[in-house]
Design brief:
- The protein is of the alpha+beta class and about 80 residues long.
- It has a single domain, classed as 2-Layer Sandwich (Alpha-Beta Plaits), CATH 3.30.70.20.
- Helix content is about 15%, strand content about 15%.
- The protein contains three helices and four strands.
- It has a two-stranded antiparallel sheet. Strands 2-3 form a two-stranded antiparallel sheet.
- The structure holds iron/sulfur cluster (SF4) (2 copies).
- One iron/sulfur cluster binds next to helix 1.
């Protein structure tokens, strides 16, 4: 991530749909840790059919150092490259 960009990868074979990553993300609409203005980028992660899906990659620009979702994932399914 030399240029500040990051790519969020989810291994759908390993994700068990716990939702920890969705909850941990500052862009979770229920989370008030970031300015309301940024909520136009929300959500970035969501559960679709019980599996984590990456909806957008806006956090690459807005929170380039955040790795909260990766840290919250108990299975290693979600990785940030
Ligand atoms: S890196 Fe941070 S801002 Fe981006 S999806 Fe994960 S928890 Fe959300
Ligand atoms: S925290 Fe990991 S296992 Fe849980 S929903 Fe997110 S990617 Fe899947």
């Amino acid at each position: 991530m030399a240029n500040g960009k990051k790519t969020i990868m989810v291994d759908r074979e390993v994700c068990w749909g716990c939702g920890n990553c969705v909850e941990a993300c500052p862009f979770n609409p229920g989370n008030r840790r970031v300015p309301a203005l940024w909520m136009k980028y929300a959500p970035i992660l969501r559960l679709v059919n019980g599996i984590c899906s990456v909806v957008s990659n806006a956090c690459s620009e807005l929170l380039p150092d955040c790795r909260a979702c990766e840290k919250a994932c108990p299975t290693g399914a979600l990785r940030i490259l």
